[in-house]
Input
Amino acid sequence: MTQVTTATVAQPDAAQKTNIIDTDVHERAEPHALVPYLEPMWRKYITDFGWQPDRVLPYTQYAAGGLDRLDAKLPDGRPGGSDYEVLRKQLLDEYDIDYAILTGWLDASGLHPGWPEFKTALMSAYNDWQIHEWLDRDERLLGSIHVNAHEPHSAAREIDRVGAHPRMVQVILYIKDKPFGEPYYHPIYEAAVRNNLSIGFHHSENAPTALGFHRYFIEWHTLVSQVFMSQVVSLIFNGVLDKYPELHIFMIEGGFTYVPHLISRSDQQYRQLRSEVPWVKRLPGDIIREHFRFATQPTEEMSLERFLQLVDWCDSDELFCFSTDYPHWDFDSPWESLPQGIPNDLQRKLFSENAKNAYPKMPALRTGTA
Amino acid sequence: MTQVTTATVAQPDAAQKTNIIDTDVHERAEPHALVPYLEPMWRKYITDFGWQPDRVLPYTQYAAGGLDRLDAKLPDGRPGGSDYEVLRKQLLDEYDIDYAILTGWLDASGLHPGWPEFKTALMSAYNDWQIHEWLDRDERLLGSIHVNAHEPHSAAREIDRVGAHPRMVQVILYIKDKPFGEPYYHPIYEAAVRNNLSIGFHHSENAPTALGFHRYFIEWHTLVSQVFMSQVVSLIFNGVLDKYPELHIFMIEGGFTYVPHLISRSDQQYRQLRSEVPWVKRLPGDIIREHFRFATQPTEEMSLERFLQLVDWCDSDELFCFSTDYPHWDFDSPWESLPQGIPNDLQRKLFSENAKNAYPKMPALRTGTA
Output
């Protein structure tokens, strides 16, 4: 009864002909690295009092290198994504990446809302650190503005402060336990639109499942897609896409096999229950196809036939965008994670065009194919 | 871009040739109806002090008849499912149902754990009421043993008390906010196996989503599948099916379009992370195919081609079991809810054989085809 699947390996030659936008790459800042960029009054809370981000996940990631690919950890003990040169070698050069969208790690939106002024200052330091330590060093790197979503007006000010940087392409919101479609958060979307930015939602270690934190990591990690479904539903039914019709939203690090179910279920519920949300003018599936994109990692092994069925079920080949999640343990290689034999047109959309079309500030691809 | 779907109507003639086991039919007891069956010491809490089940859902169901089909509500104001004669006429006779599995409404497992002795007594009263008012009146009605899952040893005693009734076929557990695979709950599964019963998990109004109770009912109702995914994952990775290899488990009122994603995702995670749960000996998909069944309601409109793809994706045509959810507002008619043109063999499995094969105590079907 077991479905036989094998790791399908596309030839590097074929992949290298394709432009690649990697929509999920984690550069990593330990709090100490941000101290030079932090307003002086806040520095002592890291240097003297040892602030660390709160983390409610009761498990470790028990792969060989913990959260990271073992080979991405640095000899001095620093975690993967801490060093530009290593990231350049292992990712940008290795796979001939056109653009890598940096998605960070230390994001206040995925932390407890407490101590908001410190978190807001920390996110400003993070953005300046990201620009100076990463964006300024390689034109292939594109940035995500980190904000404290729990303070939407402060978040909007931070978006306005750094949003004009030519290679800041999105605002990233790590998911904790709040549905971000609520009107309370709309100043963030308004600021994103004002600055020509997309929004990226990213999983975090503080995001629960429908039944909280189960006994085992494997349970939690299997159910990661739930908070993405919840955010899509929250954004749609609270009218965010009706209010901000220019906005594009990326769902990052939740995989994509849940999308057909999400479209089918939300369309059915809309047909039956839409009187409650008269501001939503279209089927959720139509809103998803126009406004949402889903980063592919972590991919699940499947045959080409099933992958194409899955795309077909969504009634759009523009929803999925390739991502590696470098440097994490379940990194997806551009050459190995998706089935071999994807038709060229779809391959091009998956690896670059879909992302390019949903990031207003995306620079031109090197070979000019899209 | 919108997928064009139409309500597909199978001809009554074709459907009537098929045996039908309806795996989700709600008989309804208001607390007052249970008083005659309740141990005397507890009666005053209903008659004098007005106990009502706790309910945390902040919305109403805003269909024409509220929770119920408008035509299933009784002239005297009682809710749908309160009267046997109406249920017989509107469901059993109307659709020539072979067997209807009663799944109740007032289930302590979906309530707050507080006041456990009262809840345990109430569930005993419920079961006696169910036997006397329903099972004794029509051989087509099969019962679900109601228990207070929060007190597993008391629940097991109740299962032993009424489990020998020839038409009690399952233990039903309404879902609140606990993952029921935890060892704490295993006495319930042991008692079910001991009594030749299956387990049914049923949604409840107290079941949350990954991000709690969103602003609108349509959001909550769209995300109902999450707690079912969570329970399947909890049961599998906590080894319930390795420990009780005879057990069959029904997931009721969560639909079925989430199942391909659930299988694909959990298989992938098992391949990568199974060292954490060495007691789980097989791919989750294999465990699902052997042990789990999914009641079809609420169905989502889809073409026959997509329905068959979805079945194919599960690598089994034995997972889905037809259900109406009578008398609720989103009732699925046997003649109208699934696509027209399903091949006969699959149609037979969906409408009767799959359920029959997963309920050890299921009586013979009338026409002897399965």
In short: The two ends of chain B are 42 Å apart (CA to CA).
